[in-house]
Automatic annotation (TrEMBL):
<dbReference type="InterPro" id="IPR002478">
    <property type="entry name" value="PUA"/>
</dbReference>
<dbReference type="InterPro" id="IPR041532">
    <property type="entry name" value="RlmI-like_PUA"/>
</dbReference>
<keyword id="KW-0489">Methyltransferase</keyword>
<dbReference type="InterPro" id="IPR036974">
    <property type="entry name" value="PUA_sf"/>
</dbReference>
<keyword id="KW-0949">S-adenosyl-L-methionine</keyword>
<keyword id="KW-0808">Transferase</keyword>
<feature type="domain" description="PUA">
    <location>
        <begin position="2"/>
        <end position="91"/>
    </location>
</feature>
<protein>
    <submittedName>
        <fullName>SAM-dependent methyltransferase</fullName>
    </submittedName>
</protein>
<dbReference type="GO" id="GO:0003723">
    <property type="term" value="F:RNA binding"/>
</dbReference>
<keyword id="KW-0698">rRNA processing</keyword>
<dbReference type="Pfam" id="PF17785">
    <property type="entry name" value="PUA_3"/>
</dbReference>
<dbReference type="GO" id="GO:0006364">
    <property type="term" value="P:rRNA processing"/>
</dbReference>
<dbReference type="InterPro" id="IPR015947">
    <property type="entry name" value="PUA-like_sf"/>
</dbReference>
<dbReference type="GO" id="GO:0032259">
    <property type="term" value="P:methylation"/>
</dbReference>
<keyword id="KW-0963">Cytoplasm</keyword>
<keyword id="KW-0694">RNA-binding</keyword>
<dbReference type="GO" id="GO:0008168">
    <property type="term" value="F:methyltransferase activity"/>
</dbReference>
Length: 214
């Protein structure tokens, strides 16, 4: 496993709960070259005096070179952790999803808030609709398979689609994808409601067409 050593004094924000580690805060990264070059590889993060801080997803190609998964030394980063995080995020917003109208776009997973830095998931159309995912960091991109498995199992929604913020993905050194990860692709246009406003939207790209009058 990789070891990331933080410069003296730069660990304060991490110990205060900030999950992002910028390249400028890193003293050195130790480990095999193939691990260093693998986007999203798990790394142990330590202080300059070698005290454990946490475990993180490492990405040498990003200015945010690591994102903390856990501050618990006895908590491994594995399929079980990822699925627990997805399940907890879905449970947190289950009432809002159930109360949503057929055209409401509802948040399901919200990145750092859910311990899944870089993952955004929205639900449209209820259980038989679509889950629209954005994998905006190398960490969650590396765990895409268990994330999708957990989304399918916990929501019952058969359709999971990946779209991208091209600039964010490029900044992470990740390839650009617009594709169905499970089930069917969304249609070209759907009606989306946001409060009292309604839009025609392409769920695949996030592009909003001119407003529809209420």
């Amino acid at each position: 496993m990789l070891i990331i050593t933080i410069k003296q004094g730069k660990e304060k924000s991490l110990l205060a709960g900030d999950p992002w580690i910028y390249a400028s805060a890193v003293e050195r990264v130790e480990g095999r070259p193939q691990e260093k070059n693998k986007p999203g590889a798990t790394a142990t993060v330590q202080t300059s005096s070698r005290q454990f801080i946490g475990r993180a997803a490492y990405n040498a190609k990003s200015q945010i070179c690591a994102r903390i998964w856990t501050y618990k030394e006895d908590e491994p980063v594995d399929h079980a952790l990822i699925k627990r995080r997805v399940k907890a995020a879905i449970a947190k917003r289950a009432a809002a999803v159930r109360a949503a109208g057929p055209n409401d776009l509802v948040p399901v997973v919200r990145g750092d808030e859910d311990g899944l830095s870089g993952l955004l998931v929205d639900s449209w159309g209820g259980v038989q609709g679509y889950l629209i995912c954005q994998f905006q960091s190398a960490g969650v991109d590396a765990w895409k398979v268990p994330i999708v498995q957990a989304l399918l199992a916990e929501t019952g929604c058969p359709n999971v689609y990946e779209r991208c913020d091209d600039l964010v993905r490029k900044g992470e050194g990740l390839p650009i994808f617009y594709r169905a990860l499970a089930g069917e692709e969304p249609p070209d246009h759907v009606l989306v409601t946001e409060g009292k406003q309604r839009y025609s939207m392409d769920l695949r790209t996030g592009f909003k067409y001119p407003k529809v009058r209420s």
